[in-house]
Amino acid sequence: MGASQITVPPHAPSPVPGDATPSSGVIHVKVRHAAGFTVIGNHLTQHRGLSLVAIGLAAHIQSLPTGARIGIKHLAERFPESETRIAAALRELEAHGYLHRSRVRLTDGRIVTRTTSYNQPDATTRPVTTPPRTRTAARKPTTPPASSPPPSSPPATAPGPRPVPVAAPPPTPAPQPQPTPATRTAPPPPPLPQPQQLTPELLRTATALLADLRRHTPQLVLSEHDIHTLAPGLATWLERDTHPDTIRHTLTTNLPTPLKHPARLLRHRITTLLPPPLPGTRDVTPTRHPDATVPPLQNCDHCDRAFRSHHPGHCRDCRTEQLTAA
Hints:
- The structure is a single chain.
- The protein is built from 10 helices and 4 strands.
- By secondary structure, the chain is mostly helical.
- Among the domains are: 42-117, Arc Repressor Mutant, subunit A (Orthogonal Bundle); 200-253 and 262-275 and 290-294.
- A two-stranded antiparallel ribbon has the order 1-2. It has a two-stranded antiparallel sheet with strand order 3-4.
- The longest helix is centred in the C-terminal third of the chain and has 16 residues, at 224-239.
- The radius of gyration is 51 Å and the shape is elongated.
């Protein structure tokens, strides 16, 4: 009867001393690529700030040829990820410098999105090419001839005649700066017209007329100082039997926009647009013509609108309506 044989199951060979195979972790089996491959840097594949979707999307974009479509909808049809995740991954790549998207207008008027892919995150900041080097011709070392004697002290020569000093030409005077012409200053404004007799009634009426301008034209807001300064000139208009409505229309029509200096504008108009006295009234004082005063303000009994009249009643518009209704 023969002896039984025990079969031992096979086991892994014992590690050979000096073997670099790790006991755990990934083991690479590398085969050299001959065609159809893309070189991608570890700064992308091992990036700690990018998600796996962004890293995979960047690797896919870098493997595509120039001109390939990489729109969000096109990528969503190609991969199982949603448009939201793909859009977020594209924004990650833009934030870290791997992509740049811009809107450009084509020659036919269409506006398209142009996407530029960078295999280096700082490719947009550092130059790609280096300036060409300029070749410099090698210089041959110059050696003194062998037959030349060693340098020695110069031979003593007899002292020659002392040179006669020549008088230097007189210095040319520096050009004097030409006096610049004085800057032209604007001529002073003409003085305000003054009435022949500035009565308290004329002054009060002119002051009230100037202060009332802002109710008709909000741009003509005058200070108390401006009103007291312009009142004598406006009293001259009243002295020459100019109606207050005519004065108001002359001062408030065709104002410039914007109006920066209301007082200057009114001073200019009061001075330059002063009407001449009526015939036969040049030497007549306002005391002889009490009608030259401005009527006081009254409130319309119908619409409560302010108007000027010596007697209370209705304004012109209400009177016109009443006549039309009658």
